[in-house]
Write a structure and sequence with these properties.
Two copies of one chain form a homodimer.
Chain A: E1 11-18, H1 22-30, H2 32-38, E2 45-51, E3 58-64, E4 70-81, E5 85-89, E6 92-93, E7 97-98, E8 107-116, E9 119-128, H3 131-139, H4 142-158
Antiparallel strand pairs in A: 1-9, 2-3, 3-4, 4-5, 5-8, 6-7, 8-9
Helix pairs in contact in A: 1-2, 1-4, 2-4
C-alpha cells in the first residue's frame, strides 16, 4: 500500500468482516454495472456510474433521491491495487485536475480488502483536511450510509 | 502515462528542449539536495526540501524571499514514472489528504522528460480547476518563474 496514515481526529473508518470472498468485493467496487446496484443506501439509488480504473481516471456516480433529484459526483482515482486497495478523491477530478467539492468538503476514500477466513476484512476510510470536515461527514451519516451500502454490496456479491 | 488531458483554457505549459540528458533532469527533479539548488528563481532560494518519491508521498519545499521570509509548501506525489514523468498536486497533502491551498488556488504539476537528440524535451504543465486559477497563476509569473528555475536546473545538471 502506498504511503498514507490515518488520523482518528480527522478521519472516519468503517471496518467490518463480511462473508463474501475478497475478489467479489473488489468486483462489486470496480464494475459500474454492479456499483449502480449497491452504492447508494436505499431508498436512494445510483442512476449511473463510470469508472476508468487507473491513476488519474474518472470515478463518476449519479445518486438519485427518492424524489428523483439527481446528484452527480466526479472524483479521481489515485491508487488501484488489484483486489486489495482502491483510493480515490473528490479533491481532484479526472486527470488529476483540482476541483471544488460540491458538498463543501473534499475527502479521499481508501477502500481496503483483505482475506479473512472464507470472507473479507473490509476497511473504508474517509480522509479529511480537518476536524470540521470530519464532523460534517459524520453528521451527514457516514457510518450509517457506508454501512448500509456495504450490506447492499454483500447482497450484490452473493448474487454473482 | 496515466490518464490526463491538457486544456489550454485552464492550464499553463512550459515546453523547451534543454542540452542535458534526461536522466540528469530526472535526478535534479527528484533529489532534495539538488532541488534546493534550482527550484526557486533567484534572488529567491529554497531553504529545505523533502521528497518521498511514491504515490501518496510528500513533496515539501520551503522557499525563502530575498528578505528572508519563508514560505513552506506541502504537496502530494501522484505519479512517479522513473526518468519520464512526475506528477504532484497542492490539492492534496501527504497521504492523499485533502488540503486547502495556501496561495488561494490548488494546482497539479505534470513534469514530463523525454530524450531529444543528446538533450531533453522538457514539458511542465500546471493544471487548474478553472480559468480564473489559470489567470492568477499566469499573473504570478508562471512562465518567467518556471523558465528561470529550468535555467537553474540545467546549470545544476551540468555540474553533476
Amino acid at each position: 500500500m502506498t504511503a498514507y496514515t490515518t488520523n482518528p481526529e480527522l478521519d472516519l473508518v468503517l471496518e467490518r468482516t463480511v462473508d463474501v470472498a475478497p475478489e467479489l468485493v473488489w468486483k462489486a467496487w470496480t464494475t459500474p454495472e454492479l456499483i449502480v446496484r449497491w452504492f447508494a443506501p436505499k431508498p436512494w439509488s445510483t442512476s449511473s456510474c463510470e469508472i476508468d480504473l487507473q491513476p488519474g481516471g474518472r470515478f463518476h456516480t449519479v445518486m438519485r433521491s427518492p424524489e428523483g433529484e439527481e446528484f452527480p459526483s466526479d472524483g479521481c482515482i489515485l491508487v488501484v491495487e488489484e483486489g486489495s486497495a482502491l483510493v480515490f478523491t473528490s479533491a481532484l477530478g479526472p486527470g488529476f485536475r483540482p476541483q471544488v467539492a460540491e458538498d463543501g468538503f473534499p475527502f479521499t476514500a481508501v477502500v481496503r480488502i483483505a482475506p479473512d477466513g472464507a470472507g473479507t476484512r473490509y476497511t473504508a476510510t474517509a480522509i479529511h483536511a480537518d476536524a470540521s470536515a470530519r464532523k460534517q461527514h459524520e453528521d451527514m451519516g457516514f457510518a450509517e450510509g457506508w454501512g448500509a451500502a456495504l450490506d447492499q454490496l454483500v447482497d450484490v456479491a452473493k448474487s454473482l
